Amino acid sequence: MSFTGKYELQSQENFEPFMKALGLPDDQIQKGKDIKSISEIVQDGKKFKVTVTTGPKVMHNEFTIGEECEIEMLTGEKVKAVVQMEGNNKLVANLKGLKSVTELNGDTITNTMTMGDLTYKRISKRI
């Protein structure tokens, strides 16, 4: 199953408490909470390019499954991580105490980030 495509955020759960826990300033949280971000994914075998545009902010990450890479976090901090694939539709990464699981089902991508007992969930649809 290919992740390649453009996806628009449809809904999210626990955005504000999760962003506060990450250390994002309140003004950034308020600006970002109602923006429908667009994620563009290009998959070429085990190589991925992911661009997430949230209003004026653009985050760009590239990685190869199973290889160490540098990932930009929501705070702008860059951390080293290894992204693994489970089955053919799930990407899993551990980033500095945060676990990210991205699952593709048909035209829907569900991204769940967990830090301690706090979970942030984003659901995006292919456009």
Can you give me a brief rundown of this structure?
With 127 residues, the chain is mostly beta strands. The protein contains two helices and ten strands, in the order E-H-H-E-E-E-E-E-E-E-E-E.
Radius of gyration: 14 Å
Percent of residues in helices: 10-25%
Shape: globular
The total count of helices amounts to 2
Q: Provide the residue-averaged pLDDT.
A: 93
Distance between the termini: 17 Å
Strand order of the largest sheet: 4-3-2-1-10-9-8-7-6-5
State the low-pLDDT regions, or none.
Answer: none
- The number of E-state strands comes to 10
What structural class should be given to the helix and strand makeup?
Answer: mainly beta
* Strand percentage: over 45%
Largest sheet: 10 strands, antiparallel
Query: What is the string of SSEs from the N terminus onward?
Result: EHHEEEEEEEEE
Describe the structure.
The protein is globular. It has two helices and ten strands. With about 130 residues, it is mainly beta.
